[in-house]
From TrEMBL:
Residues 300-365 are annotated as: Disordered. This is Unannotated protein. InterPro entries: Kinase-like_dom_sf, Prot_kinase_dom, Ser-Thr/Tyr_kinase_cat_dom. It comes from freshwater metagenome. GO terms for molecular function: ATP binding; protein kinase activity.
């Protein structure tokens, strides 16, 4: 088996990038790895940081044990630890990881709201939390506006990433608004997610290198809070689906699947309710979600029918056979324009509407 460790003295010059609770991240300006075609960063654990050396090494071995094609797939889905960095006495000093790809970093200028302060330069990672923000607020903050089809594609990509980890017997654990980044573009293939802070992931049957926490507002029900599992990954993915497809007020804390009732059909809503339900045995697999969202992101936005039409509309014909409404199954895009509802409150549940602007579905919230 290939050596997964590097002496800290071999790293050479470094530039500080950022600091978190457990460690500091530095860009290595001269050090390179043959199996990493991009730049390398060093996450140096702070003195007193809590981690399990065997767990840290296990998560690095996940990648080193893969075939080249599978390693490329993992690198596409995650900023995965590459090597364990060790002090001369053998103690773990930290981890090497790829630098975050530029396409997941937002650069530009904020807009000038109502003639206020001059636009300011911004550069930050595109964290999932920006998908939860009201679109008009996102514009003012200088974030890219993301339409509904792009959001469905981002959800599909997130499901693919978690599905690949599950195939490796890896539980990601701390799914949250900041532990994954996204990018969007004109086609579904351009809309992707990449997982970060992966040293907290855990190979099933082993201890996690770093504690698998539950971020605020992302905790699973009851005793599931104690141990992260594939079922808790699916639960947290369901929270992401709700929040990313219904941006706006209270979105970042919502656990209410009814917020997206205008978007999914009956089979999708039934799957989402099971996903965020209290019984982990009834949750769908992440593969079921990947399959469902593959259809949604390929064939486009559901038509936003009224409640009566949703109950009685045609579901299951043509491309909609897997449970996603498409124009061909429900009367064309004109029906979507006429029937898409704006945000409304029903039974204490906020519903988010979408409308078509310049050929793109955008939130009316």
């Amino acid at each position: 088996m290939a050596d997964i460790s590097v002496p800290i003295g071999d790293l050479g010059p470094r530039e500080f990038i950022a600091e978190g609770g457990q460690g500091r991240v530095h860009r290595l300006t001269q050090f390179q790895l043959a199996d990493c075609p991009v730049g390398v960063a060093f996450k140096e654990y702070k003195p007193g940081a809590t981690f399990v050396s065997a767990g840290v090494e296990a998560i690095v071995r996940v990648r080193s044990s893969l075939s080249e094609p599978d390693r490329q797939t993992l690198d596409r889905h995650a900023v995965w630890p590459l090597r364990v960095v060790k002090h001369p006495d053998g103690r773990v000093a930290g981890l090497l990881m790829p630098l975050i790809p530029d396409e997941y970093v937002q650069s530009g200028f904020s807009s000038r709201p109502n003639g206020g302060a001059a636009p300011r330069a911004i550069r930050h990672e595109r964290e999932l939390q920006f998908l939860f923000v009201d679109p008009d607020m996102a514009d003012r903050l200088g974030h890219q506006r993301v339409n509904l089809q792009q959001r469905l594609s981002v959800c599909r990509s997130f499901a693919e990433a978690l599905e690949f980890l599950a195939s490796l017997n890896v539980v990601f654990g701390d799914i949250s608004a900041k532990n994954a980044l996204f990018k969007v573009g004109p086609t579904p293939a351009d809309c992707t997610v990449i997982l970060v802070d992966c040293d907290a992931a855990r190979v099933t049957g082993t201890a996690a290198g770093v504690s698998q926490l539950n971020s605020p507002d992302w905790d699973p029900p009851g005793k599931e809070r104690d141990v992260a599992t594939h079922a808790t990954d699916v639960y947290k993915f369901g929270l992401f689906v709700i929040r990313s497809l219904s941006p706006g007020k209270t979105s970042s804390q919502s656990r209410d699947p009814e917020r997206v009732d205008p978007i999914f059909d009956r089979s999708g809503m039934e799957m989402l309710r099971r996903t965020v339900g209290d019984d982990p045995r009834k949750r769908p697999s992440i593969t079921e979600w990947r399959d469902y969202l593959e259809i949604a992101s390929t064939f486009g936005r559901p038509t936003g029918l009224s409640g009566q039409d949703r109950r009685g509309g045609r579901i299951g014909s043509g491309p909609a056979r897997q449970g996603i409404r498409t124009p061909s199954a429900t009367g064309g895009m004109e029906a979507a324009k006429q029937n898409t509802s704006t945000e409304e409150s029903q039974g204490g549940s906020t519903r988010i509407g979408w409308r078509k602007v310049n050929g793109e579905w955008v939130s009316t919230n």
